[in-house]
């Protein structure tokens, strides 16, 4: 099932200014979106498989690239959970 608000946030984080704000004050940015506690937990834990079930793969990969996760790590987490 796709999560509209998660996808919307990932899309919005393509803005350099919002991405910088997210890195500095994650909770402040998260509060602008209707993101449930289980999704917030998955974001905090970098739970790639959980998030992959809820959003577009392009947006997911861009999000983790933007947070500093190396591509190799992203792919490992995606494959192995």
Could you please describe the fold and organization of this structure?
By secondary structure, the protein is mainly alpha-helical. The chain has 7 helices and no strands. It starts with a helix and ends with a helix. The model has no long low-confidence stretch (mean pLDDT 94).
Walk me through the topology.
Blueprint: H1 4-12, H2 16-24, H3 26-30, H4 37-44, H5 48-52, H6 57-66, H7 71-80
Which short descriptors sum up this protein?
81 residues, mainly alpha, 7 helices
Overall, the morphology is: globular
Q: Give the termini distance in whole angstroms.
A: 18 Å
Instruction: Describe the oligomeric state of these chains in a short phrase.
Output: single chain
Main sheet properties: none
Low-confidence stretches: none
Structural class: mainly alpha
- What is the H/E order? HHHHHHH
Rg over CA atoms: 12 Å
Residue-averaged pLDDT: 94
Total number of strands? 0
Our count of helices gives 7
Helix content: 55-70%
Percent strand equals under 5%
Short overview:
With 81 residues, the chain is mostly helical.
């Amino acid at each position: 099932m796709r999560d509209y608000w998660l996808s919307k946030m990932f899309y919005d984080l393509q803005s350099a200014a919002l991405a910088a704000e997210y890195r500095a004050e994650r909770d402040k940015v998260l509060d602008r979106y209707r993101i449930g506690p289980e999704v917030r937990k998955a974001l905090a834990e970098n739970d790639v498989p959980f998030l992959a079930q809820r959003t577009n793969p392009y947006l997911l990969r861009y999000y983790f690239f933007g947070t500093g996760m190396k591509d190799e790590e992203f792919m490992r987490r995606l494959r192995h959970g």
